[in-house]
Specification:
Length: about 650
């Protein structure tokens, strides 16, 4: 507000009337008030802007009806004081209100009008309406505030640099990003460059030094090092303006903190690399499983054949096949456990979600393990309550495998004449299964390593056979199925292994049965006649099959070493049964099977897969494609014979 000195010549009331006539129709609001600042006259613009007519305001002080809640009382007081001193006021901005309550910003110029003695007899106020401008200013400042807020949220600083001086104008966020304050930084780009990571500095300097009118925009990433040593990534984007001679004048741009997205990018890259590694590991394991089982098939198979003809062997060597079989069974268990453990740990083990009736499963397993329990004189007892139905969620095959481990440990590490008590305790949302033995127990300092692989906890040289893999695998499987496993033990008294599995409610769907290939083969009456085609490339396996088929002398067996040869033989003379190796030199078993299905001559022939892959996923896939059965190598002779008997045609009367 600037004071303007009072006019030197006095103005009469007649002069004012002339003035009224002149300003009646000007666009500004004009008010004439008496010495008491009561309104005497207002022009048309006043009425149209404020809504108040002359009749309504005559004799009233403007403050009485124009001011409102947003009017600044200090500005009003200062104005009044100036007027009381007889001084004019100029350019004062006040928030008034129109008659209907709308905000009305005005710029006020008030001139006291004096008589010849210098006494104020009137005031003339000329007011302009600033409301639109104020609204625009308010909208602008709100936009600026929002922009600043957005830039701060996006960790984005804005800046502008003068190329001649290197001086910069920066937003607050820019200082914050660089760990600078307005006081410690000379607002020169060198000051910001100090924070740039030494390895990135040449690149940053180059990017700023070389803008050309052809390439006025830049975008690049670099690191900065904050005072505490913390490294952050920034993305710089900017544009340079040039003078007519093509010299850079000014560059303006944004710097954005992209550390988080860089970190996420790295995490994503690491994750992909890990996934690739895990896929490679799974492939390798499946290859290894196949390669290790193939020779075992020959060892186990020929030992079984020898065992079946033990009568023909000299008495001194007659028990060797038994010993070879025992050792190879041990080796097979070891291979299976090792591969399963690696597979589950690499995340490559596919698990199904089945509803499993736990008491029923345990009961079956207790019957299965009865021969071992008898041998060790251990009584396995299910507590009466455990006989009721109670289901959990888990992969039925893997749950069975886990329970076999816990039951056989409870038998193996029990005392002679001891008891293994099994309890099933249904709870809220979960089911607890306890295996309590009366063995030696496990010392407290060994409990921690109990579930680690290859830990036998001092049993390495004892008479109990094992490799220290069962519990590690059991824990991994139980946890992957959403359960937990723990142990309580007292040296000299025994141990309690406790498994908790997610409970399945009775109305959660049908109870799952383990896949059919694990079920004990239903014993069929031998079917001695028929024609069998074996598609198998491995020489040892063919020899073994020949040996096994000697047990069924009435069968006519032919052999094909490749998929193509097998298809040809099958089509020329469709057999009664096909045994199909799933990995052949020219194609895989799935392709052979698909082609057999496409041909009307072979479509009805049952096909049994014969594979060294024991993965549940592979078995499920083969059975779902329509293969009639799946025999896992190493082949068990009884299971092999039972399976082929089942699929061969019934004997024809009189043959
Ligand atoms: P394994 O039985 O093949 O050695 P496990 O992983 O099943 O492998 O068990 C690891 C070790 O934990 C065993 O060697 C044994 O020392 C100990 N252990 C397991 N179960 C029991 C048990 N019920 N009582 C005492 N010790 C046990």
């Amino acid at each position: 507000m600037s004071a303007v000195s009072a006019p030197s010549a006095p103005i009469s009331r007649d002069d004012l009337r002339t003035f009224q006539l002149v300003v009646q129709h000007v666009p500004n609001m004009v008010v004439i008030a008496d010495a008491e600042r009561r309104i005497e006259w207002v022009n048309d613009a006043y009425t149209s802007i404020t809504g108040w007519t002359l009749d309504e305001v005559r004799g009233r002080r403007p403050a009485a009806f124009l001011h409102g809640p947003g009017t600044d009382p200090e500005v009003v007081a200062r104005m009044r004081e100036a007027l009381e001193r007889g001084e004019p006021v100029a350019g004062v901005e006040v928030l008034n209100y129109t008659k209907d309550g709308r905000e009305l910003w005005i710029a006020l110029n008030i001139q006291p009008v004096c008589d010849a003695d210098g006494r104020v007899h009137h005031y003339v106020a000329i007011q302009s309406n600033l409301t639109e401008r104020k609204r625009f200013e308010q909208a602008l400042s709100e936009q600026r505030r929002l922009l600043q807020q957005a830039l701060a949220l996006a960790h984005m600083g804005s800046w502008e640099m003068d190329h001649e001086t290197g001086a910069m104008v920066c937003s607050d966020e820019m200082y914050r990003l660089f760990g600078r304050s307005r006081t410690d930084c000379a607002c020169h780009w060198e000051c910001f460059l100090e924070r740039v990571h030494p390895q990135d500095l040449p690149r940053v300097r180059e990017a700023f030094a070389q803008p050309t009118p052809q390439r006025p925009e830049h975008e690049f990433e670099h690191r900065i090092v904050l005072p505490g040593g913390q490294v952050r990534w920034l993305l710089q984007r900017g544009r340079t303006e040039f003078d007519p001679e093509g010299r850079p004048v000014r560059t303006s741009g944004f710097a954005q903190d992209i550390t988080e997205s860089k970190r996420n990018e790295k995490l994503e890259r690491d994750k992909q690399a890990l996934e690739q590694l895990s896929r490679a590991k799974t492939q390798f394991l499946s290859y290894m499983s196949h390669e290790l089982r193939t020779p075992l098939n020959a060892i186990v198979g020929f030992s079984q054949l020898l065992q079946s003809r033990a009568d023909a062997l000299p008495p001194t060597v007659a028990r060797y096949p038994d010993l070879i079989l025992q050792a190879s069974e041990h080796l097979l268990r070891l291979i299976n456990d090792l591969l399963d453990l690696s597979l589950v740990e690499s995340g490559g083990l596919a698990l199904s979600r089945d509803r499993v009736d736990v008491p029923k499963l345990l009961h079956e397993l207790i019957v299965l393990l009865d021969p071992i329990a008898r041998k060790r004189d251990v009584e396995v007892r299910m507590e009466p309550g455990a006989r009721m139905h109670c289901s959990v969620w888990g992969d039925s095959t893997r749950l069975r495998q886990s329970f076999i481990n816990l039951l056989s440990n409870g038998i193996k590490y029990n005392r002679h004449g001891g008891t293994l008590t099994v309890r099933v305790l249904p709870g809220e949302g979960q089911v607890r299964i306890e295996f309590e033995d009366q063995g030696d127990g496990i010392p407290a300092d060994k409990l921690d390593s109990l579930f680690e692989p290859l830990q036998r906890l001092g049993r390495e040289s004892g008479d109990v056979e094992g490799a220290g893999l069962g519990l590690a695998l059991t824990r991994s499987l139980i946890e992957r199925m959403g359960g937990r496993i723990g142990v309580r033990s007292q040296v000299g008294r025994g141990s309690v292994f406790v498994v908790e599995m997610p409970r399945a409610e009775e109305d959660d769907g049908p109870v799952s049965r383990p896949a059919p290939w694990i079920e004990p083969e239903a014993l069929a009456a031998p079917r001695p006649y028929g024609r069998v085609l074996c598609i198998e490339d491995n020489e040892f396996n063919c020899l073994l099959l020949e040996g096994l088929f000697e047990q069924r002398p009435g069968l006519a067996v032919s052999y094909a070493r490749t998929g193509a040869e097998g298809l040809l033989l099958a089509q020329q003379s469709p057999p009664d049964l096909i045994l199909l190796d799933m990995r052949l030199p020219d194609m895989d078993g799935h392709q052979v099977y698909a082609q057999l299905q496409q041909d009307a001559r072979t479509r009805g022939v049952p096909v049994i897969a014969c594979s060294a892959s024991a993965y549940a996923e592979d078995i499920r896939q083969a059975l779902s494609e329509g293969l009639a059965g799946y025999l896992i190598k190493p082949l068990s002779m009884p299971q092999f014979l039972a399976t082929i008997d089942r699929f061969l045609p019934p004997p024809v009367e009189g043959r």
